[in-house]
Amino acid sequence: MKTVFTRPESLTDMPMHYCPGCTHGIVHRLVAEIIDEMDVYERALGVAPVGCSVFIYNYMDIDMYQAAHGRAPAVATGIKRVLPDRLVFTYQGDGDAAAIGTGELVHAAARGEKITVIFINNAVYAMTGGQMAPTTLLGQKTTTTPFGRDAAANGMPVKVCEMLAPLDGSAYLARVAVNNPKNVLAAKKAIRKAFDVQMSGAGFTMVEVLSACPTNWGLSPLEALKWLEEKMIPYYPLGEYKTPATEVQP
Amino acid sequence: MARAQVTFREDRCKGCKLCASVCPKQIIKMSDHINVMGFHPAMIEDQEKCTGCALCAVMCPDLVIEVAREEKKVG
Fold first, then answer.
1. B57 within domain boundaries
2. Which end of chain B has a smaller Cβ tally under 10 Å, C or N?
3. Domains within chain A, CATH numbers bracketed
4. What is the pLDDT of residues A189-228, one digit of tens each?
5. Does residue B75 fall inside a structural domain?
6. Based on the structure, what is the number of domains in chain B?
7. B62, B65, B67, best to mutate vs chain A, most A CBs in 10 Å
8. Confidence class of residue B1 from pLDDT cuts 50, 70 and 90?
9. What is the pTM assigned to this prediction?
């Protein structure tokens, strides 16, 4: 028999601290699998955010750096400019990338920094206890919007891919989800393409991953994936929002 | 002889059931006992029925599942 599925080498064997059914683990694994496939184990460098995924540096068996809240794209900019042959990515949640670090994210994209942002959108501030995030859906109950998010009081959810697409510096922007095996495999393809585009030097790349947070949504893991499919995907349509003009070879 | 072998690293499992929900043969169940973390870990009920599609492993957030299968014979 041939082993067809096992832990990727770029991932340590440490059990992850995430809640049951949290999809961070799936995305960690996809990134590690791609690093293995691209054979960039010794040239890959990641920047951890502040949020649930802050401990990603314990799980990825590559060089990792931990940035102040929201500042991961700024730190990654520095790393990539000093070490341009490295594969540099940041791994950020929506509180980190879409709220506290919006300035860093938008300007890294505007400057066309050759980095990849893996942006986990779970529509809530998870680590701090489920407060409203900029990406929280209308009507969604959080600890700071107990009656549901209201457009008049709280504004409309931020669509990050659509926001960055008009910037000339961005080269590849895609939104994917990890709610079923088909979408997980599509997510892997998108992250791989983002890494390839980054290494080709075309510009800023970002993959937004719609992710589940059963704990703060108050749902079981299976209900959370259903909610993601029924509520989040219609508001945050999946697909590629920007691709480089010339096809990039892996 | 089973076509595929699925191994669950039981003590890593958090019992989220994502693997069971995507199994096309519906042969993944939750154990009655609890593991070191206090969850009911996933287990395979009938190894003979497993085709080794690895969809369970693709959805597992905690790298519990390892899949091996017979290589396809060509010709």
1. yes
2. C
3. 24-242 (3.40.50.970)
4. 999 999 999 999 999 999 999 999 999 999 999 999 999 9
5. no
6. 1
7. B62
8. low
9. 0.95
Q: In a mutagenesis test of the A interface, which of B56, B58, B67 is the best target, namely the one with the most A β-carbons within 10 Å?
A: B58
> Using the beta-carbon criterion (under 8 Å), do A222 and B60 form an inter-chain contact?
no
How many whole angstroms separate alpha carbon B72 and alpha carbon B75?
Answer: 10
Q: Which residues contact A164 (CB under 8 A, 6 or more apart)?
A: A105, A106, A109, A170, A173, A204, A206, A241, A242
Task: Give the A-side interface with B, CB within 8 Å.
Answer: 1-7, 11, 15-16, 18-26, 29, 180-181, 184-185, 214, 221-222, 225
pLDDT digits (tens, 9 = 90+) for B26-62: 999 999 999 999 999 999 988 999 999 999 999 999 9
CB of A120 closer than 8 Å to CB of A211: yes
Domain-located, residue B20: yes
At residue B2, does pLDDT exceed 80? Answer: no
What distance in Å separates the CA atoms of residue A177 and residue A61, rounded to the nearest whole number? Answer: 24
At residue B57, the pLDDT reads: 96
- Residue B63 is assigned to a structural domain of this protein: yes
Q: Give the domain extent around B59.
A: 4-69
* pLDDT surpassing 90 at residue A55: yes
What is the edge-to-edge ordering of all strands in the sheet holding B4-8? A2-5, B65-69, B4-8
